[in-house]
Amino acid sequence: MAESVRVLLAKIQNELLAGDVSPARSRDLLMRSTALIGNCGAEVVAAEASFAVVLLAHVDAVGHVSQARVRAAVTPEAQRVHAARGAKELAVELTRSLKAALRSLEEEMRLS
What we know:
The protein is mostly helical and 112 residues long. The protein contains four helices and no strands. α2 crosses α3 (65-72). The chain starts with a helix and ends with a helix. The mean pLDDT is 94.
């Protein structure tokens, strides 16, 4: 069974937290995290579409958008949207961190 995007991001994050990642491994992790951003983006779109259907059903049932938003916010679809956005943000931040680390390594090599 394939690992979920969240598991893959957690593995990248744990490897970076452990420290002392080689430049070649950093490049590999950067490729992976960049690719996962696309997967996360697709999940955000799908999750938001599912949530929109739930929100619309609540608007139809309640009649007021503000009340419907409150009711829809506690549904599994809303949790899915939050989780997808969180995973995407993590992927973006990991990518930024890896890019910064690689730039630093390149600068060190250039100066030595």
